[in-house]
């Protein structure tokens, strides 16, 4: 059943992008396509996502949005273009966070806020905001060994997201879930219905999981007319943060009668609009016929002919044919008129062109080295009487030139802007390794986390010799050996990092 309803919604979403009504017992849900996206064709030809703005380092492609790529210190985001115009909603999204390391960073944010497209410290989204943030925090910045963690922070603009503490005193609640590197995308469902906020998510272990409860909070008051957003950020550690789909349903609790009433009202409104339009059309037709008496005659004779021949015996098929014929004739007329206009325009263009070429040729003779000759030639030209229409045409030509020049100016300004942008991005790119180096020592918390995981490995291995009772004499030696090995490995690791950073700073001097 769920397969069918998914298929149904998918077909509608892709097909006519119309409104799909899914009825459950008491809630009425409606797909809101202006706040949704879903593969396989997320982007248009110009790489934009319909109804969404994508910014920062986010990359939109046909089947997913990569909010942040697995490169150091990147931030990306996307926001719905339209503010939400319904009270209650549920969003189902499917996402993938993957990286080659045992630990990754920094995480992904789901937003419902009154601000949009602001880059800040909360996983690429704003640092402080009005509304809701649901965060998938991969990296353990506060060292409490409690990440990846999923949590909600509500904000009235008074909280400044505390990245170093994983927002731990700011949370409304959350759950410990490892969502990184799972075989299937994680399904996340965020519901906001009658001031109850619910966050559910799947484990990504099988394809057809139902999301399980992560958090439920009552008495949540979110602002109206806010925007949906997604963001992600990487730091010293970097994962790929991908969102494959984002499907928003508005949730209504009105009874079906009321919705029918509304649709009836809408129908009446549309019908009256249609009548108005028809009346206007008729008035315009009469006016047109008044202005063009020869057409009116044509039409009259046409109508008379029709009345005389087929009018009385016209059957529906003939009528349809005649209507098609009329329509085609109308199109024909319109095309003829267009043709006339185009001819006029071309004529004017040619006149302008010749005027321009005469002006430029005049300039060329002035600019010639044999100025004496042209000076001799000029007086007779000036003496010739100038006609009024010539002056007019020159003025017109000048005006046209002016607009053309303005266009060119805009164009140049546009290009300049783009060049500046390119320069800036070029400047930024060498800065990124530099800013990484500004931290001097490689990111300390990252090092700590890696050491933590090494320690965990050691513990796991040390507790294993019990499983090998056959060689008890060697047990002590193995442990000793292992300790030595770990120390050597750690020294090599730290040494390598120091060597690498000093090597990078040396090579930096060559720039
Ligand atoms: C170190 O890396 C982690 C993980 O990417 C990040 O959260 C943290 O902000 C980084 N610290 C510094 C000082 O850049
Ligand atoms: Ca964190
Ligand atoms: Ca933590």
UniProtKB/TrEMBL annotation:
InterPro entries: ConA-like_dom_sf, Intracellular_Lectin-GPT, Lectin_leg
Transmembrane segments: 480-499
Low complexity: compositionally biased ranges: 296-312
Domain of life: Eukaryota
One Pfam family from the record: Lectin_leg-like
Keywords: Disulfide bond, Lectin, Membrane, Signal, Transmembrane, Transmembrane helix
Compartment(s) where it occurs, according to its Swiss-Prot or TrEMBL record: Endoplasmic reticulum-Golgi intermediate compartment membrane
Region spans: Disordered: 290-313
GO annotations of cellular component type: COPII-coated ER to Golgi transport vesicle; endoplasmic reticulum membrane; endoplasmic reticulum-Golgi intermediate compartment membrane; Golgi membrane
SUPFAM superfamilies: Concanavalin A-like lectins/glucanases
Record keyword Transmembrane helix present: yes
Signal peptide limits: 1-24
Name recorded for this polypeptide: Protein ERGIC-53
């Amino acid at each position: 059943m769920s397969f069918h309803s998914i298929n149904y919604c998918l077909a509608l979403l892709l097909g006519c992008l119309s409104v799909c009504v899914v009825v459950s017992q008491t809630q009425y849900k409606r797909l809101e396509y202006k706040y949704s996206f879903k593969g396989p064709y997320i982007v248009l030809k110009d790489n934009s996502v319909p109804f969404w703005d994508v910014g920062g380092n986010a990359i939109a492609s046909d089947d997913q949005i990569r909010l942040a790529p697995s490169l150091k210190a990147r931030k990306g985001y996307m926001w719905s273009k339209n503010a939400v115009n319904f009270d209650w909603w549920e969003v189902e999204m499917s996402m993938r966070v993957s990286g080659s390391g045992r630990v990754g960073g920094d995480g992904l944010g789901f937003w419902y806020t009154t601000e949009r497209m602001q880059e800040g410290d909360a996983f690429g989204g704003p640092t402080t905001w009005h509304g809701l943030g649901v965060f998938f925090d991969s990296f353990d910045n506060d060292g409490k060994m409690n990440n990846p963690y999923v949590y909600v922070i509500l904000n009235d603009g008074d909280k400044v997201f505390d990245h170093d503490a994983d927002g731990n005193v700011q949370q409304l609640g959350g759950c410990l879930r490892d969502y990184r590197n799972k075989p299937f995308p994680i399904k996340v469902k965020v519901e906001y219905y009658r001031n109850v906020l619910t966050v559910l998510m799947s484990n990504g272990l099988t394809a057809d999981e139902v999301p399980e409860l992560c958090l439920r909070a009552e008495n949540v008051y979110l602002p109206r007319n806010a925007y949906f957003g997604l963001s992600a950020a990487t730091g010293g550690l970097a994962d790929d943060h991908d969102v494959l789909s984002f499907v928003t349903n508005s949730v209504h609790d009105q009874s079906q009668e009321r919705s029918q009433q509304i649709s009836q009202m809408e129908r009446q409104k549309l019908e009256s609009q249609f009548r108005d339009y028809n009346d206007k059309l008729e008035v315009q037709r009469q006016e047109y016929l008044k202005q063009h008496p020869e057409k009116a005659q044509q039409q009259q004779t046409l109508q008379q002919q029709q009345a005389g021949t087929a009018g009385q015996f016209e059957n529906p098929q003939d009528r349809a044919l005649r209507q098609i014929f009329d329509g085609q004739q109308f199109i024909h007329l319109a095309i003829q008129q267009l043709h006339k206009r185009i001819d006029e325009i071309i004529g004017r263009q040619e006149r302008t062109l010749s005027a321009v070429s005469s002006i430029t040729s005049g300039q060329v003779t002035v600019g010639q080295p044999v100025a004496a000759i042209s000076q001799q030639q000029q007086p007779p030209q000036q003496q010739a009487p100038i006609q009024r229409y010539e002056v007019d045409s020159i003025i017109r030509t000048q005006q046209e030139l002016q607009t053309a020049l303005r266009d060119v100016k805009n164009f140049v300004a546009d290009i300049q802007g783009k060049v500046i942008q390119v320069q800036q991005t070029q400047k930024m790119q060498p800065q990124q390794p530099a800013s990484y180096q500004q931290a001097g020592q490689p990111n300390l918390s990252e090092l700590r986390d890696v050491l933590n995981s090494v320690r965990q490995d050691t513990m796991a291995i040390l507790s294993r010799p019990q499983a090998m009772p056959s060689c008890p004499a060697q047990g002590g030696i193995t442990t000793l050996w292992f300790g030595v090995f770990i120390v050597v490995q750690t020294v090599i690791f730290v040494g390598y990092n120091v060597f690498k950073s000093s090597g990078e700073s040396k090579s930096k001097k060559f720039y």
